[in-house]
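User: Hey, quick favor. My workstation is busy. Could you predict this chain's structure for me?
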Amino acid sequence: MFRGLKCSPGFFMVLALCGVTLFEGGCASTGIRPDKTITRAQMEVEQADREGSRNYDAFDLIEAQTKLKSAKEKMKQGDYKSARFLAQEAHVDAELALAKTQTAKSKEAETQLKKSLQSLQNEIDRKENSSSGFSPVEPTDMPN
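Assistant: No problem, here it is.
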């Protein structure tokens, strides 16, 4: 098949280098750069931090931050598949931290509201009893 073809040894060297480069590039990158995925994860992590997740769900927030950092490192190394996966996990962890934070804040607000309502009810009861001139009569004081 290649009988009449004359190739220099340099040609085979270049051909071999091209093959290795294509193989390594294909294995390392596996797809397009996950810039948007990492950006979305970064925004979600920042929002969870701003909302106070550090005080309510530090574990999930730290997990998200760690995975985001790893995703950025993998992207620098050209391992786009791993970077994308880690960024997606970071996004989910940050969403979980944010949801837990919002739940905890809602429960705190509910508790405060219940305390306020009880205080108001106590005040209303106290005023009703004092303004009506009602004083409880002992059964022994009643006329026969």
